[in-house]
Amino acid sequence: MLRIDFGQSLLDHSGVLILVQPVGYIGDKRFKAIFDEISTYRTAQVPNTTRTLNLRYSKRVSPQFIEWGNFHFHKRVLGLICVGRCTEISEVEKLEKAINEIKNPFSAILLNTRCFVFGCKSNDESKIRKDFALIRGEDHSEDLQSNLAEFVASLFNVLESKRISKLSEKIDKITLIQAPVEHEVFGGENDSRTSKRKAIGRSKKYTGDLCMLAGLPQEALAQYLIAGEHLRVVNDLLWLAGAMEGQCAASLVMTRTATEKDRKSLILPIECASNSVNLTMNGLGGDVDESKFRNPQALSEDDIVERLSEALKLYNRVKGAAVVETEANLKFTRLLIIYKRRIEASVALQNSLSVNVFLTEQEKIQRYSTAAVLYDELGFKRKAGFFGRIAAMQCVTPQLPHPLWLYSYKFLMGALDGYRISLNEKDVATGVTNGWPALQTRLLNELIFTARRLGDPALAFRHITFLLHTMYAHLSDDERKELCVLLESSAKQCTGSPRSPKSPKETDGQRIDALDMALVPLTKMPLVRSFKVNPLAPHMKPVGNNSAAASGPESAGPFIFSSLRGKVKQSKKSINTTWVCGDIGQVSLDVYNPMPCELRVSQMVLCVEGVEFEPYPTCLSLPPKAGPHAVMLLGIPSSAGPMRVTGYSVTVFGVESTCKLTKENLENKDDFPVIVDVCPSMPLIQVSTTLPKVRCQPPDPDTAQSAPLVTAVTLYAGQSMKGTITLENIGKMPVESLNISVTSKDGEGVDELFSFDEEEIKSKLPVPPGHSTDITVTITGAHRLPQGTESSDNPSYDPAAPWGLTGSIQFRYSTASNNHMSRKVTMAIDVTVVPSLICENYQIIELPSDRSHCLLMFDAVNKTSNDMELSFCVGNCNESNSVEGELTADGSMNIQGNDKNRITMNLPRFALPVSIDHSQGVDTDSQRRAEYKRRVCELVRISWNLPACNASGSGNVENLKLNSSMMQALRPDPVSFGVKINGEEYDNATSSGITISLCSIAELNVQVFNESDEPHGPLVLTIEPYQDQASGCPVTELDGKVAWVGTLQVHTPEVLPGKSFCHSCSLMFLYEGQFKLSISCTETASQQAAPSPQGTGSKSPERTCNSENTDTILKGEIHSLKRSWTYSPSVRVHVV
Known about the structure:
- Belongs to the NIBP family.
- Residues 181-254 form the Trs120/TRAPPC9 N-terminal domain.
- Residues 528-655 form the Trs120/TRAPPC9 first Ig-like domain.
- The chain has 1136 residues and is α+β, with helices and mostly antiparallel strands.
- Among the domains are: 10-170, P-loop containing nucleotide triphosphate hydrolases (Rossmann fold), CATH 3.40.50.300; 359-402; 420-489; 527-544 and 574-679, Immunoglobulins (Immunoglobulin-like, Sandwich), CATH 2.60.40; 685-696 and 707-785 and 801-827, Immunoglobulins (Immunoglobulin-like); 837-875 and 890-910 and 926-970, Immunoglobulin-like (Sandwich); 978-1084 and 1124-1135, Immunoglobulins (Immunoglobulin-like), CATH 2.60.40.
- Helices cover 27% and strands 28% of the residues.
- The strands form nine sheets. It has a seven-stranded mixed sheet, with helices on both faces. Strands 37, 39, 40, 42, 44, 46 and 47 form a seven-stranded mixed sheet that branches. Strands 9, 20, 21, 23, 26 and 27 form a six-stranded mixed sheet that branches.
- The longest helix is centred in the first third of the chain and has 27 residues, at 141-167.
- The radius of gyration is 50 Å and the shape is flat.
């Protein structure tokens, strides 16, 4: 370190400074690795306490640096670590002399010394001194860590003893501590009271420094606060400023978060915990009440800034305190950067630069370089660049005996950003000037001069090319000529290939890697414009197999307008050109010579990547300031794959420059990046068809010679037509892959109209060269419905209006050796669909006579002008989970032109299968209706024939819209019953009744099943015993003939699909005769009251034990009934 520590911060007040020095023949790289490993341990934890020691390491400390050690204790070198390497114990003694020479300048302030010896193979440590530690083995991390922890523990023990001793010091034993500049200023002061308070204040400040280093920032803050009270009274400005600076440092350490602390920490031995004592105040002096300063709180951010500002003012008033004032300003600057107060930080940094302090030449370099770094952290790039350049000039000042050209070059390189000079290839390629051209040109010229003084012509060559490339527009013709001459002479001094010139030092392996700089290509020598890759002939151009998807509509989603959305720039896809392996590819470009001298280009070739490529070189000789000159670059791709044209290579002044391709070079900016797909040889087919065709302009302008066919077809809706397309292979490679796709202008109706047999296409492949094959295409006139609706309710929908499709059929074909690329041939199509049969006015009703079927009725409308023969039937769905409806008898009728007839069809009633997990089934009304509609469409089969037109086709009921009544008629009864009497199943379809004895108990069990695909509820189950009169009217008032146990009416809130609920009760018939049990289940519109309590009685079936409540419930159900299901016929009971 120099006399002034320009890298110091407030956190360094809590850091124990340890000097690390090499001894013996350890080597620079080995020492650097060990120093880096040691310096990773920035903290040390005292066991069983919350105290943490902060550690600072330095490779160099000058004796002048520690002259302010009495004023700031953290500036003292408290520990010395020497790093050496020996193989035998006897060699360790030779290191003692070197260690003593290092230790002598700091012997008065060092607390302990330790020498780490690496590489010693002997294990006998009895022959070496205690301050030597042998570090063995290749993996010495644990050994080094333990020895380092032991060394730091010894420093801590000494610091702790000093702190305890200072806190226990008697008032009459206190001596006046003096700073270096105070020996003459305060030497003759005689006021004993003032001297006493001054000595106490300085002692408290000194004690605070010890507490900071010992890991007690709160105790240190208390000592600094007490010191400030004493020193302010006696007007001790220098030490008062130091105490206030300590207050800010202690507060900052206390408020430091865990994330700001180092992760890697030493754990000190357990003995350190016993040596640590939480001794606080010693109560020196009765003029200040020290009790109020115990356990102080950390200063706030504003208080820290205010007190540090006051301390700087006090430093400024003390003569000879320029060193600590400069350091304090730098600390203040770094603190304000942490607090993100940039303006205040810049003022503090400027104050540090304006402090009048004597500096050596090295300190001046350090001062300006530190200012450049801090200004860069503040974001003041211009000032950072300015001071970086000042530091570079200071490195080569005449006052230095040996100019530091290497450091000057590094500082100049660091100043480039402040002068807005970017070495980034992307920024360099743009060629856009940003900044001050005159200053930038001067800085680049200084870099060229510095590189030449370093003896590195290759580096100077790179800077010359960079200057010509970036500052070309701001250079005069004379400057351009001078730079060209300098460029040519530097190139001659370099060795190596023209592509990568090297300096003589680099060939000897002595060049420093830090000086490497990328070679900037000479894109303006010559200047290239209108760069264009010429494609192959249109009808021979291969295309990628994914082009079909890319040729579709830009977005399949809906258009949504938003006034808040800005204008989104649509990214244009780069246009890729395809070449064929083995064929010559051409690139055309225009070149200019903007230089004031003749430009001789000895070689110019095309640069590509991705495939093997054989370029044809071109030579140019361009007169001064001339152009454009048309140039054609040729080359042959030797392998297949994607080939990217990265640019071109020119050889000028004996050095080859590889110029990357940019948008500025292209004739069409949207073609960047330039990708050329190179594919192997491919087949070629020719298309013909039996469908009606005409000649017209093909829809794809790139396929002018391959798609001259246009097909025009008119069909009735529901009519189908088959045609043959012949594919003839006229190429030299077999067609082993064929993909047929149909596209339309509006993107709709393609799949409805056209179909190909994939199995037939696969069976016709491969097609050898010189052979042909036939492909069958089926065109079906699909019924067109308005998009997004289920019927013709859309006002804009006209069922009588024809619709059509204009598009093309694309045949993509390739061979197995080149399956990622294919050629295409296109056949244009024009299909018009006119209406034929339309079904409307649907109605579905129940059949009382047949509960397993329902009646479907609708109007069949003949939209043609000819008579129509219509036939219809109900088919059988073969799916395992579909309706098991039998095939009904065919129906037929004739409908005159533009007339309609009513059609009636018997449909089997069906229900959707109930999923085990209802949440995974069809659980929404819209999904359920859609599924029922689909199955009805599968059942209904309609066909028509127009004899006059010799046309036939099929109809459908796709425009059917199911409402609630239709759904109810279509589905079977959702509720079924299961009855058990005395534990035996009762089947009302086969059983004639049961016989029971008089006054015996009949156990009745009724189970209600939900066999539908939706939940039902609330449900009311009612059991009603009655007798039939001779007139056929039932008698429900049995007048005590029947008694029961339990309730005859039960409520349940809901029954899920596939579930059931059960109810049991007991009946006793008190008279002989014929009785019947009516069992019914009613679904109500709202939740009913809970059933009445169970009991016994002989009342009528409508009443239970609580007859009044039951009557009220039954009356409330009159207006809330939805549906009712009855177990029919009723249960017959014969009592004997």
